[in-house]
Amino acid sequence: MEPTTLFDKIWDAHVVNKIEGGPSVLYIDRHFIHEVTSPVAFSGLESRGLTVFRPQNTVATPDHNVPTIEQHLPIREELSRKQVETLTANCERHKIPMFGLSHKWHGIVHIIGPELGITQPGMTIVCGDSHTSTHGAFGAIAFGIGTSEVEMVFASQCILQPKPKKMRINVEGKLGKNVTSKDIALYVIAKITTSGGTGHFIEFAGSAIRSLSMEARMTLCNMSIECGARGGMIAPDETTFAYLKGREEAPKGAAWDQKVAEWKKLKTDENAVFDTEYTFDAADITPMITYGTNPGMGVGVEGSIPTGDDLTGSDLATFLKSLEYMGFKPGEKLKGKKIDYVFIGSCTNGRIEDFRQFANYIKGKKKASWVTAWIVPGSKQVEQQIREEGLVEIMESAGFALRQPGCSACLAMNDDKIPEGKYAVSTSNRNFEGRQGPGARTMLASPLMAAAAAVSGVISDPRE
Questions:
Q1: Beta-carbon count within 10 A of 5 CB
Q2: What's the CA gap between 10 and 123, in Å, rounded?
Q3: Letter string b/e over residues 89-117, b meaning 16 or more CB atoms within 10 A of that residue's CB
Q4: 77 and 176 fall within a common domain
Q5: 262 contacts: CB under 8 Å, gap ≥ 6
Q6: For 55, which DSSP code?
Q7: What is the DSSP-derived secondary structure letter of residue 419?
Q8: Whether residues 409 and 345 fall in one domain
Q9: Cβ 33 vs Cβ 59: under 8 Å
Q10: Strands 288-290 and 298-300
């Protein structure tokens, strides 16, 4: 038999029908939905007199539009309130499990799936949200879909999808002190560019990847789409199984043993061929920060913004426009630059390990007086862990306050917006113009970089 990749094994097992010269009909194991991309899909379904085909395979939670303070009160902003109410009504009508604002399992869609054990190796997973790639950390094929495709999954539990090309990114060796998977992601995107992964599905491999915790792997797979890829994945291993064991929706007893035996087969065969392959040395990666208006415009904290001397035409124009928006100059150093806001959270870095790293760094220090910090857990369970582990006391004594779960300042869809012209060091995934609010200037970084900036009030190296 011809050697096959992990991606091929999962994809081929889910193909229901293949259209000659066209896309495949792919069966979907898990469908996550939230309040923003589902209302039109529900309307379309009902206008055709259809119901959700397999409601038990769908899970709902409101996250994008929700406030992160006073969640016990009705949502003040009218459109946000209407979207959340519409999601609730649609889920009740179609018998879809939903974890609303008051539910103990409420949280960001890509955080609650893994922490409840709903996300499992070998699955196909979709959501009307681009960062669905997060779930690929478990050895699943997970990708974002559009509203018409959400309707397609509601109606048939299948989706029409062309098969992407395959890429492997190997990161070998040992990561340096205070270098995280967020730094790996930003480093790789800076190297291969924001279009380097276009048309591909990425498998991350190599000794540095295998050494990562599940939460770190989720951060990396979350960011995989920022280089243009359809998604990212990592082969499941003992780290994966240990994370899943005993979780709410994970298999139990004999079923668990049977599943683990199946999951152990989910790996790329030796000599399997990828369309594109890269190898990077972990020792070359330092704490990263972005300087521009896409996630590929990143440098090591000790580095300088490129001069742009090697660019011409539209590439140069885009580069200069980006720097003008950010208020930076070519060749400038970022280290020591004053910042205004810090945001810890989002589906990229809103898990318990992120807050442990943050708290560990700020312990015994004080927040810079001019910095506004939004510390936002990714779920109610993460919030509870933060409290149980005594991290709240560390945060409060350093001048930080904990907010409630939600997407928060990742995107300007709720109350947590960065004001125009202000600089934010953000642990989220995108730094496009206006992403965190009209005129907001976003610099993407790890929780450790954000912690260092929050304490010093300027961009700092967390290794010092």
A1: 22
A2: 7
A3: ebbeebebebbbbeeebbbbbbbbbbbbb
A4: no
A5: 122
A6: G
A7: P
A8: yes
A9: yes
A10: antiparallel
CA 62 centroid distance within chain = 16
Q: What length does the chain have?
A: 464
Domains: count for the chain: 3
Spatial contact of 368 and 456, defined as CB atoms under 8 Å apart: yes
Q: Are 122 and 235 in contact (CB under 8 A)?
A: no
- Of 128, 161, 194, the last residue of a domain is 161
* Confidence band, pLDDT 50/70/90 cuts, at residue 1: confident
On whether both 157 and 13 belong to a single domain, the answer is yes
Do 155 and 130 reside in the same domain of the chain? yes
Q: Would you say 229 and 197 are in contact if contact means Cβ atoms under 8 Å apart?
A: yes
For residue 139, the model assigns a pLDDT of: 98
Sign of the four-CA dihedral 402, 109, 453, 391? positive
Q: How far apart are CA 408 and CA 66, in angstroms?
A: 8
Q: Do the Cβ atoms of 222 and 133 come closer than 8 Å?
A: yes
pLDDT digits (tens, 9 = 90+) for 94-128: 999 999 999 999 999 999 999 999 999 999 999 99
Residue 93 is part of a domain; what is its CATH number?
Answer: 3.30.499.10
- φ, ψ of residue 288 in degrees (nearest 5): -105, 155
**Mean pLDDT for the chain overall:** 97
The pLDDT tens digits of the residues spanning 204-263 come to 999 999 999 999 999 999 999 999 999 999 999 999 999 999 999 999 999 999 999 999
Containing domain of residue 374, as a range? 292-456
Residue 65 within any structural domain of the chain: yes
Residue 464 in any domain: the answer is no
Strands (E), 62-137: 124-127
Could you tell me the two tokens for 173?
A: 């060796």
**Going by DSSP bridges, is the β-strand pair 141-144/165-172 parallel, antiparallel, or unpaired?**
unpaired
The two structure tokens encoding residue 242: 């240990």
